[in-house]
Specification:
This protein is of the alpha+beta class. The protein is built from six helices and 15 strands. Helices cover 31% and strands 23% of the residues. A five-stranded antiparallel β-sheet has the order 8-7-9-14-15. Strands 1, 2, 4 and 5 form a four-stranded antiparallel β-sheet that branches.
């Protein structure tokens, strides 16, 4: 079931999304060679709790195999759902940090892929293209369009640049639950799928690989990696479907202030 949000609900979603944005910026301050993914997770959890919210990922998945951390941190060939721990980051790593919070009964959930130190031109192209495709998808998230218009825009931009588009993982609706209908794939045909309506709130999140689009899940039951061990990038925003132009509830501005990241500068420039 798809829930159209009132303006008061959208404001609560914005508050949750902005807290995620600020949490990602706190993490950005500490991303450097030698830091462990577990260190980053503790920073995020402390910040979320201090801001009177709950880490939405921690314990997610039920009693059988609950996710054990507040962040999903996925390095290099890890696409999403990496579990933070003792792993140290190295110069040149690319690191997807995905964060979710629940605040006042509403959820925020978005992600950014960082570079540790310097990286080569191919890495910059992967991140830049993935980020660009996120905004191309968002441009299609307007009243009267279809889910397939978002999906097709993301797919075409990445494949035109030689990258793989993961099929097994999708974006989603967001609201009083972290994952609501509809699913928002990153591949598809324009004019297909659910019709978009004003007040729909979506988490759009391209997950893009340097090589083959196929993925597999590791024995921990969570970490998803590329089948060919190529590197992957992941960016995510929370948005509201509107007439004429989608509204973005989350922001990368806090990250841009800290990192002075060339990838972000390319977009904002």
């Amino acid at each position: 079931m798809i829930f159209l949000k009132s303006e008061s609900e959208i404001e609560k979603l914005r508050e949750a999304a902005q807290l995620v944005s600020r949490t990602l910026a706190e993490v950005a301050k500490k991303i450097e060679p030698g830091v462990t993914t577990g260190d980053l997770d503790r920073i995020a959890e402390d910040f979320i709790v201090k801001n009177n919210a709950r880490p939405a990922f921690k314990g997610y998945g039920g009693k059988k195999n609950p996710f054990p951390a507040s962040l999903c941190i996925s390095v290099n060939e890890e696409v999403v759902h990496g579990i933070p721990g003792k792993r140290k980051l190295n110069e040149g790593d690319i690191v997807s940090v995905d964060c979710g919070v629940e605040k006042n009964g509403y959820f925020g959930d978005h992600a950014y892929t960082f570079v540790v130190g310097d990286c080569d031109d191919q890495t910059k192209k992967l991140l830049k293209t993935t980020l660009e495709s996120l905004y191309k998808g968002i441009e299609q998230a307007i009243h009267g369009n279809k889910i397939g218009d978002i999906a097709s825009a993301i797919q075409k931009h990445n494949e035109a640049n030689g990258f793989g588009v993961v099929r097994d993982l999708v974006g989603h609706g967001i609201g009083k639950s972290m994952h609501e209908d509809p699913s928002v794939p990153n591949f598809g045909k324009p004019g297909r799928g659910e019709r978009l309506r004003t007040g729909m709130t979506l988490a759009i999140e391209p997950m893009i690989t340097e090589g083959c689009w196929k993925v597999k899940t590791l024995d921990d039951g969570w970490t998803i990696v590329t089948a060919d061990h190529s590197r992957a990038a992941h960016f995510e925003h929370d948005i509201v479907v509107r007439e004429g132009k989608a509204e973005i509830l989350s922001t990368f501005d806090y990250i841009a202030e800290i990192t002075k990241n060339e990838i972000l500068e390319t977009h904002y420039g």
